[in-house]
Amino acid sequence: MRSLSGTPIPTLVFDDRAELARALADEIEALVRRPTATVLGLATGSTPLDAYRELARRRREAGLSFARTTTFNLDEFVGLPAAHAQSFRRWTREHLFQHADFARTCFPDVEAADLEAAARAFEDAIRAAGGIDLQILGLGRNGHVAFNEPGSARDSRTRAVELHPWTREDAARDFGGLEHVPLRAVTMGVATILEARRLRVLALGSRKAAIVRETLRASEGPDVPSTFLRAHPDVRLLLDGEAAALL
Ligand code: GLP
Asked: What is the dotted CATH code of the domain comprising 2-240?
């Protein structure tokens, strides 16, 4: 692992994905082992998968307990039932929750008749849990963070949003065609995310190299929502060599 100097977000480049996953799992393990309650913010997608597998392995092989840990997922597609093959609830259950012993796992209610009230309830639940200790984040190709698409404001909070065409295209294969991809999602807002005490932003592979560069170099603003992360006092970018190739 090497760290890059002079970047607006402290940036670590790992030799391979397994090393990155272990480093993130080490940091999470140190948090969940504390005698006090821990709150984790979870992302879905291919990027954090190895880290979740590593946590599940530590649970299975070393008995690491998450019994004092509550989780909040970043986002979910509007209207999708929890059992739907592409729901983030199902994905996170299959890849993490069913392999561990979390105290509580929370998602925005995307089936509520009143999505605004459900979004407020989600924010209230984060606050009541004491705020998020560590938020895991990925990056969309267009700079989205969670589902804060280009145009999202710095002070945005949990809300229902329209998905960007690139986001729906990226999801089309998993959904078996673009026409099956929901048009909307509920996402934590930029301000919600920036309130987490630590942000760990992951990017892997050459597909992410351009947006990693933009995240660090574009002028801060809603055109590239990931640029807002630079303002956080404890943010780190964790990359593999391919994602760091344009830096
Ligand atoms: C999705 C999620 C994000 C995720 C991003 C990247 O749209 N809403 O939270 O970080 O896309 O996904 P992947 O890691 O599969 O590239």
From this structure: 3.40.50.1360
